[in-house]
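Target chain:
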Amino acid sequence: MARGDQRERDRAKKQKELAKRAGPATKEGSVESRNLNDKAALAAKVAAKAAAKKEAEEAAAKAAAQGSAVVAKKKKKEKKADASLDDLLSAGLSGGKKKGKK
C-alpha cells in the first residue's frame, strides 16, 4: 500500500467528519426574508420590553402616591480585619504544650 493512497483516504475521512460537524450548510429562505423575520421579531421584543417598563413605572408611581414604597436595602458585608502573619501561621495548631523528650 502506497503512502499516497493513505493520504487520500485520510483526507476523505476528514472531509466526511467536517461535513457531519458542519450540519446543513444552507439556511431556509432568502436573505431578505430572513432579515425581515429578524426585524419583526426584534420589533416585537422591543415593544414587549417597552410595555413591561411602562407597567413597572406605573406601578412604582402608584406605590409612591400611596406612600407604601418599600425599597430593599442591600446588606453590607462586614470586612474581616486583616489577619496577621502569626494568626495565619498558627491557624489549626493546638494551644497545648508540645510533647517532647524529658
Q: What stands out?
A: The helical segments are 3-22, 31-66, 85-90.
